[in-house]
Amino acid sequence: MHYKLLYSQGINAYLFYKDGKEITEYFSAENEWVNSPKSFMQQQLDIYYIDTIEQTDCFCLNVKDLVFLFDNFPEMERYARLSMGTVFGHYMDRITSMRFTKAKEKYQHFCETYHDIYYRIPLGMVSSYLGITQETLRRIRAEK
Predict the structure, then answer these.
(1) Beta strand extents in 9-133 (DSSP E only)
(2) Over the stretch 41-72, which tens digit does the pLDDT of each residue have?
């Protein structure tokens, strides 16, 4: 399953492992494209894994097939550019949130960003994503 672009019908987490600990970086919702961009475009293993949080069906697309779509259907290339801009914007917001906000603000930003799915994501993955402990996350959630 390496080097594929997947269209997923469930919630997924992008994560990696550091010192035996799972670090969550990003979530995708139903009916979104899912992949490790580095692995997909460079055709090599990446540190990131994709973990399905809920039961899901995936449809796979290889790089050569995607290139064919780009070459023959300009709207697909435009869609990809717009999608990458959205992902880039998300990561810029995430970096700003991680560097310049307190835990409660990080959680609020997370809930706004993932407003359709945040309540379906396990707390351990949420705390990992936010860079805070589960205890801190529980306290923040209890304040609401």
Answers:
(1) 12-18, 21-28, 32-34, 49-52, 58-62
(2) 777 888 888 888 988 888 788 888 888 999 99
Residue 27's domain spans which residues?
4-143
Q: How much is the CA Rg of the chain, to the nearest whole Å? A: 16
The count of domains in the chain is 1
- The pTM is what? 0.82
Cα–Cα distances (Å) from 64 to 6, 33, 34, 56, 61, in that order, read 14, 16, 17, 24, 8
Structural tokens at position 120: 């379906």
CATH number at residue 85: 2.60.120.10
Cα 89 from chain centroid (whole Å): 13
